[in-house]
Structure formats: C-alpha cells, structure tokens
Amino acid sequence: MYKITKVINNNIVCSVDEKGKEIILRGLGVGFQKKKGETVPDEKVEKIYTMSDPKRSGKLQQLLAEVPLEYVELSTEVIEYAKQALHKRLSENIYITLTDHISFAISRKQENLEYRNVMLPEIRRFYAEEYRIGLYALEQIYKRFQIELCKDEAGFIALHIVNAELETNMSDMYQITGLIRDVFEIVRIYYGKDLDPDSLDYERFVTHLKYFSQRLFTDSIVKTDDMVLQDMIRSRYVKDYNCALKIKSFIQAKYKKCISEEEVIFLTIHLHRLFFTAGEEEE
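Predicted structure:
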C-alpha cells in the first residue's frame, strides 16, 4: 500500500518509499476521487518514477499533469525498451525529456508541422542502435495512434537516448555529433580509407568519441600518471599519434578547447586498433 502525499490527476499521484523519498505513482484511476493521506493498493500501480533531484521530480510532476496518459505510457515503454536493448543505465531525466518530446512531436504532426533533422545521416551512422530504438518508437506511435511520424523524429529520439547515456545536455548533443563527424572525416583523409561500420573496433571508436566529446564539452579532464605508457605509445604508434595530433589541432581551432595529452594518447590507441588490426603495419 502507498500513502498519497499529493494527487496530480486521476492517474498520477505522489507518495514516499520506505526510505521517505518522494516517488510518483502511475496507474489507471489511482488518483480518482482520492485525497492526501489516502492509500493506493500495490496492484493498482503500473509504474513508479523516482527522481533523485527534487527539481527534476517537480518538473516530471508538472509534465505528467499536462501530457495525455497514453503518451506517458508510450514514452515509458520506449525508455524501458531502450534500457533492455542497450544494456545501459540511462539518466532518470529521460522520463522528462523524451516524454515531452514525443508529446510535442505528435502535437506538431496533428498540426501538419514537422521539423527536419539536419543531422539524421550522422545519427544513423554513429548511433545506429539508438536510431533503431527511435524507429521502434515511431512504429509504436503509429500502432497506437495511427499517427505516422517521419524518420527525422527517429533521429531526434535517438539523440535523447544518447543524451541520457552520456548524462549531458541536449544542447551539447549537436556539438558532440558534429565533432564525431569531423573526427571521422579527418581520420578518413589521413589514412586514405573508410572505416568498416560493421567492425567491433569501429563501434569501440564511436563509443570512445561519444564520451571523449562529452568530457570535452563539460570541461572534464582525464588524468593519468603513467608516463611510461604514454612514451611507449608515442614511440611505437607514430603514424596514429600524428593523426591524433591533427584531431587535437582541429579541436583547438574550431572549438577553442585544448585536449590533454592523456586524451591524445587514448585517441592514438583507438586509431591504432582500428587500422593495425585491419592489416596496417606498425611504423
């Protein structure tokens, strides 16, 4: 049994868990003709939302009060599907951002307004699994509401998911995606070949670049005291190290940010893995 601390609407109420932490309960009719202090049976609760930050909890409560229940249910299902498909923890904030986005996207479509996603090619290339989840979301929207959203929306949904993986701001996601695109172009020109998108090392490199970009735009610094390893990498993987230096120079010129030598070394290791395992000889 859950004791109600606040009724948001007929289907959403607030309560507290066994540790006294505020939780949000969703279930058909859980708030109907209910008042503060009354209880909700466990079997009536379909979903429990927990926010560690009180401000986020307040935002989610406000959103759940405004968004139709069926959109909340769909968004939650997509998020749970994403967690299982990716085997990754997602920021709790995605329950706010993705629910709001899906609701807004459906409303825009009903008014015959759709936004073009200028980064859709990059999203499909670098965030393939997240994009697939975006397509799944579009399928569910059509299945439930007979509303057909364009593939651009699958890209926007994918960005929300990547954003939740990195726990950054959506405003940074376009810079992060653009940086990954630019790095891949530098690498393609430097080595004179395209990377194999089906290879494990390609996937590892994309993952590294996602977190590298996140650190760059949040001004986080990677530090290591292993100078012996750094010297060994520089001397052994000269060609790859020089490519990493080109990436560093590009970032300094375009983004006015200086990356550490540790980051350069990590880039070098990934570049060597990409091309040496594909048959390149060591310098």
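Summary: The chain has a mean pLDDT of 91.
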